[in-house]
Amino acid sequence: NINALKKLGLIFCDVKNNYEGAIILFDKVSSLDPSDVDFWASAARCHEKVGNSEKAKEWIETGSRLKAND
């Protein structure tokens, strides 16, 4: 269930500070439904927290592009 994966990813990111775990879940969500842009900012924030600013930038750009196409 995509919604369950998103909720778990947000818990990992925002509550448990388990950024790598959250990234894995967000990557899974994006592979299942790349048009679901609600979680893109959280995914970018997790990438920033682990020091991967290039990947964070990619998530932000992709999310912005998808949102513009809505």
TrEMBL record:
Which Pfam family name is an example for this entry?
Answer: TPR_19
**Gene3D superfamilies from the entry?**
Tetratricopeptide repeat domain
Q: What is this protein called?
A: Uncharacterized protein
Organism of derivation: marine sediment metagenome
